[in-house]
Specification:
By secondary structure, the chain is mostly beta strands. 5% of the residues lie in helices and 34% in strands. The chain has 1 helix and 11 strands. The chain is globular.
């Protein structure tokens, strides 16, 4: 498994919280913790920005993706609105999680709650090549539901 070095600074309001870590040898994501000073209540339908207190610097050619935690999604109906959220290698602001409650019950985000996961991924850039015609495929212009499934 490839390992890269990611530099991190931690805001004063989050210094007592542990840094993200992999919970198993084969895990692809690290849990992000809520660094809120006071409880944040997400009523059904609410969307709120939850602070983590983390600022990161990744090598060029990488991004960090913020994804929902499956346990919170299944048990509590919480999701990351812009999943996967992208943190570009040149972003230095605080990582904030845009959390939504799509359940029928309120949810309280307490300090230290595992609210999302962070996955590091390689980035490639495209070079657009204008052409007069694209190559043919068996699918062609078939769109949504074209296969009957």
């Amino acid at each position: 498994m490839e390992r890269i070095e990611v530099r991190v600074t931690v805001d004063e309001h989050a210094k007592d919280l542990p840094l993200p870590e992999y919970k198993s040898d084969a895990a692809s994501g690290m849990d992000l913790l809520a660094a809120n000073r006071e409880d944040i209540v997400l009523a059904p339908g609410d969307i709120k920005l939850i602070p983590t207190g983390l600022h990161i610097s990744m090598p060029a050619g990488f991004e960090a993706q913020v994804r929902p935690r499956s346990g919170l999604a299944l048990k509590n109906g919480l999701t990351v609105v812009n999943a996967p959220g992208t943190i570009d290698a040149d972003y230095r602001g605080e990582i904030g999680i845009i959390l939504a409650n799509i359940s029928r019950e309120p949810f309280t985000v307490k300090r230290g709650t595992r609210i999302a996961q962070l996955v590091l991924a390689r980035v490639t850039h495209a070079t657009w090549v204008p052409v007069d015609k694209l190559d043919d495929t068996s699918r062609g212009h078939g769109g949504f539901g074209h296969t009957g499934h």
